[in-house]
């Protein structure tokens, strides 16, 4: 679809091509696998609640990116809000993984840990998916740390997206301004 500057509703969607969406999808897929492997969905209500919340936080990160992208043609304000919700959801998930490590007396990899660096380097592979990271799912400690690295990378991309959206909104305005410009151009 071509787009002219006189067009009121710009192209929108295309979120599946965004690196931040792809990373959020990997975080979601790995979180589902992590919870099934290392968290008991049982009679322990605290664990069951955390299991559900972790999956929902990962899902919310991914889904809000998609929804924000689709809303972007009509409402930059909604897009900004939803990308912010995605960021907040992944931050919640990050804290859950950190809590998991701490309460299990497992090691949290530092930023310069060779294993953390190896996980971070995988982000540069093309056509990556959750399968790219499955070697890190062999233990709860390794899986948690891998996901912490991935969430940090995804949050970095979300922060960059939020900054870009904010700048675009300040420069061009939103849908209401576009309607006004289109109406004035016809007069």
Automatic annotation (TrEMBL):
<dbReference type="InterPro" id="IPR026354">
    <property type="entry name" value="4helix_suffix_dom"/>
</dbReference>
<dbReference type="InterPro" id="IPR012657">
    <property type="entry name" value="23S_rRNA-intervening_sequence"/>
</dbReference>
<protein>
    <recommendedName>
        <fullName>S23 ribosomal protein</fullName>
    </recommendedName>
</protein>
<dbReference type="InterPro" id="IPR036583">
    <property type="entry name" value="23S_rRNA_IVS_sf"/>
</dbReference>
């Amino acid at each position: 679809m071509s787009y002219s500057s006189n067009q009121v509703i710009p192209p929108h969607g295309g979120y599946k091509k965004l690196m931040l969406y792809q990373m959020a999808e990997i975080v979601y897929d790995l979180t589902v696998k992590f919870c099934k492997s290392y968290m008991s969905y049982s009679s322990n209500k605290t664990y069951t609640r955390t299991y559900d919340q972790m999956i929902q936080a990962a899902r919310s990160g991914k889904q809000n990116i998609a929804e924000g992208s689709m809303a972007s043609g009509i409402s930059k304000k909604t897009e900004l809000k939803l990308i912010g919700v995605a960021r907040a959801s992944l931050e919640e998930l990050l804290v859950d993984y950190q809590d998991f490590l701490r309460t299990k007396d497992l090691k949290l990899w530092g930023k310069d840990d060779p294993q953390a660096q190896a996980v971070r380097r995988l982000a540069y592979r093309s056509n990556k998916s959750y399968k790219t990271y499955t070697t890190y799912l062999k233990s709860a400690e390794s899986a948690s740390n891998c996901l912490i690295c991935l969430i940090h990378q995804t949050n970095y991309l979300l922060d960059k997206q939020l900054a870009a959206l904010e700048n675009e909104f300040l420069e061009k305005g939103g849908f209401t301004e576009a309607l006004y410009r289109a109406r004035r151009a016809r007069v």
